[in-house]
């Protein structure tokens, strides 16, 4: 495989995937690189896996080519695992990363550091016309910080400190993040599929 289409409109995910696929020598193409404009696929599933499969199968059918889709988000234990699959629109339809992470911080006001555990979850689905779809989950455990710190990455990275680190995900380089992230972890589980193609 020389290139792979990632069925996402999220630039932060594309940056992560470019670095992840670099080591396989595979070029990443995103929906933003296509000449045609692809409408948003409604994420109507009730799990990350269902949503990843919905996105992958819809785009594979539309473009008649193999695609990889990512559905991911943040689960905060003290918030009964919210925002979960609603992470992108947690503070409103406009999908604003700053508003989303501040909503989480506000909801955790007064919650002690011991009770701020959280995890990033990523479901990756690969779909190909006429073939069985595969989906795998990756997880990265951590804690929610008191304030946003760091400028790298995207989404909730500035408030997420992975276990064993004294930095947030937004203070790590893309390479360091990928080596421990939910996304990197899920992609490792799809290596078999990648090698077959
Ligand atoms: O590594 C990450 N670091 C920080 N935040 C992250 C990460 N991975 C997912 N997230 C957050 C961002 C967004 O709030 C939600 C994904 O929502 P999700 O629907 O999968 O993506 P999206 O709507 O932005 O793009 P698309 O559906 O076109 O792939 O979780
Ligand atoms: Mg989405």
From TrEMBL:
Gene Ontology biological process terms, A to Z: nucleotide metabolic process; purine nucleoside triphosphate catabolic process
Reactions it catalyzes: dITP + H2O = dIMP + diphosphate + H(+); XTP + H2O = XMP + diphosphate + H(+); ITP + H2O = IMP + diphosphate + H(+)
Cofactors (names): Mg(2+)
InterPro entries: dITP/XTP_pyrophosphatase (IPR020922), ITPase-like_fam (IPR029001), RdgB/HAM1 (IPR002637)
Cofactor stoichiometry and binding remark: Binds 1 Mg(2+) ion per subunit.
Keyword Magnesium found: yes
Protein name: dITP/XTP pyrophosphatase
């Amino acid at each position: 495989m020389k290139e792979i289409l990632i069925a996402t409109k999220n630039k932060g995910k594309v940056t992560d995937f470019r670095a992840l696929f670099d080591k396989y020598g595979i070029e990443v193409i995103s929906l933003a690189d296509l000449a045609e404009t692809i409408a948003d696929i409604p994420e109507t599933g009730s799990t990350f896996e269902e949503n990843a499969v919905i996105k992958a199968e819809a785009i594979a059918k539309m473009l008649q080519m193999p695609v990889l889709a990512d559905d991911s988000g943040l689960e905060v234990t003290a918030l009964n695992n919210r925002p979960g699959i609603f992470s992108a629109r947690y503070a409103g339809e406009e999908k604003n990363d700053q508003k989303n992470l501040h909503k989480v911080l506000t909801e955790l006001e007064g919650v002690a550091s011991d009770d701020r555990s959280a995890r990033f979850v990523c479901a990756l689905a690969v779909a190909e016309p006429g073939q069985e779809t595969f989906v795998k989950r990756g997880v990265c455990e951590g804690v929610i910080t008191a304030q946003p710190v760091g400028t790298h990455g995207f989404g909730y990275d500035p408030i997420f400190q992975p276990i064993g680190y004294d930095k947030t995900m937004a203070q790590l380089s893309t390479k360091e993040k990928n080596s421990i992230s939910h996304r990197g972890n899920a992609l490792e589980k799809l290596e078999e599929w990648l090698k077959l193609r």
